[in-house]
Amino acid sequence: MSYESYIAFRYFTAKKKSPFLSAVVLISTLGVIVGVASLIIVLGVMTGFHTQWRQRILGVSSHAVVLKYHNEPITEVEEILPKIESVPNVAAAAPFLYSKAIISYGGRTDGIAVKGIVPMLEERVSELHKNIVLGTMQLQSSETPSVILGIDLADNLRAHIGDTVLLATLQESPLAGTGFVPKIKKFKVTGIFDSGFYEYNASLAYIPSKAAQEMFQLPDAFTGVALKMDDMYKAKETVQKIAGVLGYPFRVSDWMDLNKNLFAALQLEKKMMFIILTLIILVAAFGISATLIMTVMRKTREIGILRSMGATSRSIMKIFMFEGGMVGSIGVGLGILVGVLLSMLLRRYEFISIPGDIYFISKLPVETRVTDCLLVAVAALGITFLATIYPSYIASRLTPVEAIRYE
User: Fold this and answer.
1) Is 145 helix (H, G, I), strand (E, B) or coil?
2) 320 and 351 in a common domain
3) End-to-end Cα distance, the chain
C-alpha cells in the first residue's frame, strides 16, 4: 500500500469532528447507492419486458419469412422448401397464406387478417399450439372448414367453440362490367388462442391452407414460407444465406426486421431510462465533490505539513482522489448489491402487479443481466472518479507556506 492510499484510508476511517461533514459524506454515499440500485432495477425490468414481448411475438409468428417481391404468390413451394431447409441453422419451414377478410357472426362483423396454414407444419415453426386456450389446433378442410380465432376476436363476436362464422372476401366477377363480388364461406370455430398481444388476439384467425387457397383464389399457391431457426439470434446471417440460395424474385425477412419498430422503441426507451437515472448518480457525484472540497478546507494544515515534508503536488492529488474513490466505490458496490437483491425479490415473489390489458402481462418482469450490472458499475465509477478531480487539484495547488502561515 502506497503512503498516499494509506493516508487517504486514515482520512476516510478517522472519526469526523464535524457532524455536518459526516452527514454530507453519508448523503453522498446514499445518493450513489440509490442511483446505482435504481439503474439496476430499471434496466432489469426493461430487459424483462423486452424478453417477454419477444417470446410472445415469436409465439404466433416465425423467426423469418420468405416472400416474393410485390407479394406475388409463390407457386414453386415444393421446389424451394428443400433449398431452404438445407441452409445451416434452419430447423423447419412451413408455407402459409395471408390476406384480409371480413368476419361475421350473429350480426356482428369485423375486419381481420386471415392466415392459411398446414397445422402439422405450423407446429414446427411457431408456438400456436401452446397458445390454444380453448378447443384444438386441428383444422379440418371438410365441407365446413375449421377456423381458430383470437380470444379478443371471439369475445367481440361472442363466438364460442362449435359456432359457425362467415368469412367474406372480394373476388373478380366473371361477368364483364360488374367489378368485384363478395365470396362468402362458412367456417366452424374449433379453437381459440391467446398470444398475449391484443393486436393478434383481436384481428387474426387461422384456417386450413386449402380453404384459404379457395377463398383467396390462389390454387396451388402460397403467400410465403415461415421459418424456424435453431438459433434465432443468428437470424440475420441465416436470412442472407437463404436469400443467396433462392435469388430473385424471393426476399427474406427475419423477426427483427418484421418487428423493427417495436424493438427499436424498446431499445430507445431502455437507453433513455439509463441516461435519466444516471443523473441521480451525477447529483450524488456533486455531493462527493463538495465533501472533498470541505475536507480540503479542514485539512489545510495537514496538507501544508505533508508538502513541507516533501510530498509532491501529485501525491496530494492522489490522496484526495483515493478518498473520493473510496466513497464512490462503496456507494457503487452497495448499490449493485441492493439493486440485484431487490431485482431477485421482484422476480421471485412478483408482488408488483400491472394491468394486463395494457402491458399484456400481469406481473412485473425482471431479468437482471451481468452486462447491465457491469455497464452501470463502469458508468457510476467513472462519474464518481471525475467528481474527485477538481477538489484534488485544489488541494495539490496549496503551497506549504500558505497552508501553515496562520497555524
Assistant:
1) coil
2) yes
3) 30
Q: Domain check: are 206 and 96 in the same one?
A: yes
In total, the chain counts a number of residues equal to 407
pTM of the model: 0.69
In angstroms, the CA 223 to CA 317 distance is 70
For residues 138 and 162, give the distance between their C-alpha atoms in angstroms, rounded to a whole number. Answer: 13
H or E stretch at 384:
helix 370-396
> What gap in Å lies between CA 156 and CA 154, rounded to an integer?
5
- In the structure grid, which three cell numbers stand for residue 362, read together? 400481469
Are 319 and 8 a contacting pair, CB within 8 Å?
A: yes
Q: For residues 154 and 105, give the distance between their C-alpha atoms in angstroms, rounded to a whole number.
A: 10
Cβ 350 vs Cβ 364: under 8 Å: yes
For residues 256 and 239, give the distance between their C-alpha atoms in angstroms, rounded to a whole number. 11
Give the range of the structural domain holding residue 179, as residue numbers without chain letter.
73-248
| One domain for residues 216 and 307 | no
CA distance linking residue 69 with residue 44, whole number of Å: 40
Residue of 220 and 20 predicted with greater confidence: 220
Residue of 389, 392, 384 whose CA lies nearest to 329: 384
**Computed over its alpha carbons, how large is the radius of gyration of the chain?**
32
C-beta atoms surrounding 220 within 10 Å: 9
Per-residue pLDDT of 356-394, as tens digits, reads: 556 666 677 888 889 888 988 888 888 888 888 888 888
Amino acid at 182: P
Instruction: Report yes or no: 186 and 164 within 8 Å, Cβ to Cβ.
Output: yes
**Alpha carbon distance 344, 335 (integer Å):** 14
Three-state DSSP class for residue 125 = helix
Residue 207, Cβ density class (10 Å: 0-12 exposed, 13-18 middle, ≥19 buried): buried
Mark whether 190 and 306 lie in a shared domain: no
Are residues 213 and 85 both part of a single domain?
Answer: yes
Distance CA 205, CA 151 (A): 10
The interaxial angle of helices 19-60 and 313-349, nearest 10 deg, is 50
Residue whose grid cell is 503551497 = 399
